[in-house]
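Researcher: I've been going back and forth with a colleague about how Helix-turn-helix domain-containing protein might be arranged in three dimensions. Neither of us has a model we trust, so I'd like an independent prediction. The organism is Pseudomonas edaphica, in case that matters for your notes. Sequence below.
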Amino acid sequence: APRARRFGSICTGAFVLGHAGLLDGHRVTTHWHYTDRLIKGFPKATVETDRIYLQDGRLITSGGVTAGIDLALSIIAQDHGRQVAVDVAKVLLVVMKRQGGQAQFSPMTAAVAPLETPITRVQNQVLAQLDQPLSIVSMAALAGMSARHFARLFAKEVGMTPMAFVQGARIDRARHLLESTDLPLKTVAFRAGFGSVRHMRFLFSEKLGLNPTQYRQQFS
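Model: Here is an independent structure prediction for Helix-turn-helix domain-containing protein. You can compare it with whatever you and your colleague have in mind.
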């Protein structure tokens, strides 16, 4: 690595570099399923969870296996110019640059734990009524707790705030509807509990890096 012009990894290859001490002090990425593990294993690196690929100086890392294609096209563009990279992308039947980041491929919320607790009961009830108004107060009432105690216990048990869970679950519900149905965006927004297409569009752009129409075009 000291003599290499560039070095890097694809997908979980970042862990090999990490064990060799080559991630320390660098901004890096890996597949979204393993980012938490990379963060814990190599605290001297800055892990960016939503990047398809990431170059930091001589080090280049990428997300999943196919993200290696994006990484390779980036290197070709640097060494031989953008047009050559575009021509290679056409031969490979891929786009030169994908829309959005890794967030569009990963679920916003983890599966509800199989253990029966007041918090998991609330989570399951929330998932069953995403199209209804939901607040910390109403969720706390379902758990039979004060809002403050509920919020604290929820964050400890789930790893996110109650409203972050609701928002993530609504995005996941909308994504499923966009992938599996031809429902109008207004209906998707209503069934997922966003209240309006505008609000759904804002959250998709903020969290996934692309709007609902773009998401449907890529995944349906």
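Researcher: What would you highlight for our discussion?
Model: I'd start with this: The chain has eleven helices and five strands. After that, consider the following. The mean pLDDT is 91.
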